Amino acid sequence: MARAEEAPPDRVNVPLTDASRPAVVNASSMNGGITVTGYAGKEVIVEARPRGRDSESKPNPKAEGMHRLDARGTGLSVEEQDNQVNIGVREMNRTVDLNIQVPFNTSLKLKCLNDGNIQVDHVNGEIDANDLNGSVKLTNVSGSVVAHSLNEDVTVTFDKVTPGKAMSFSTMNGDIDVSLPADTKARVKMKADNGEIYSDFEVRPEAGPAGAKVSETGRKDGRFRVQFEKALYGSINGGGPEMQFTTFNGKIYVRKKK
């Protein structure tokens, strides 16, 4: 199938108010993926690249014999104030991928809805990544992470973990695969409703919290019913902040980083 010529990317270099302090980057995409890479620089570099459209995907009988002309812009919007950078794409009918370079010490809040994955590499900070219909893959990250995907895998590889920070990894229809430094201390809650749980850490089992109930109906129609949560509670290396690993239709892998 023929494809329309790809438009050139929109690109902007964003100076920080104070390059000596860590930055915070908030990026969201309605249609497209987000890739963030840490680098030894002092600016946030943003590139929005539209994907080519299928030139024959939706024929228009009224335009027979005519050439379709696509707008070249991506609708990229970037704002910076006091080291906080907000990035968005105002394009509803086209897929636009965001490629962002950030100083190594940067916190991220990333959100994708359709037709794209979230990928982060070599970033040190607080990372919040949420992808509705794509995967989340974080590699060589340091700090703390909250990562969620509804329909794909969540994969995270840590270089370092911030002591004392709670973290969460969740998906509905994918696997969770998290690699942690061997000396990580944590209390873990692992829940895989329709899958298995694997770890090469020694996880010491613990009782769940007293209120870990899914439902309690009380006495109704002469019947009393209580349902407890199906989850594994335990500690790694003596315990520490809470880490939650949750999937409904997938498996959980918690690894020692080699």
Question: How many angstroms does the end-to-end distance come to?
Answer: 44 Å
Low-confidence stretches: none
Radius of gyration from CA coordinates: 22 Å
SS class: mainly beta
Proportion in helices = under 10%
Average predicted confidence as pLDDT: 88
Estimate the global geometry from the Cα principal axes. Answer: globular
Count of alpha/pi helices: 0
Number of strands: 22
What is the helix/strand order? EEEEEEEEEEEEEEEEEEEEEE
Assess the beta-strand content as a share of residues: over 45%
Tell me about the largest β-sheet.
20 strands, mixed
List keywords for this structure.
20-stranded mixed beta sheet; single chain; 258 residues; two-stranded antiparallel ribbon; mainly beta; globular
Walk me through this protein's architecture.
This protein is mostly beta strands and 258 residues long. The chain has a domain at 1-134. It has no helices and 22 strands. The chain has a 20-stranded mixed beta sheet that branches. A two-stranded antiparallel ribbon has the order 18-19. β5 and β6 (84-89) form a beta hairpin.
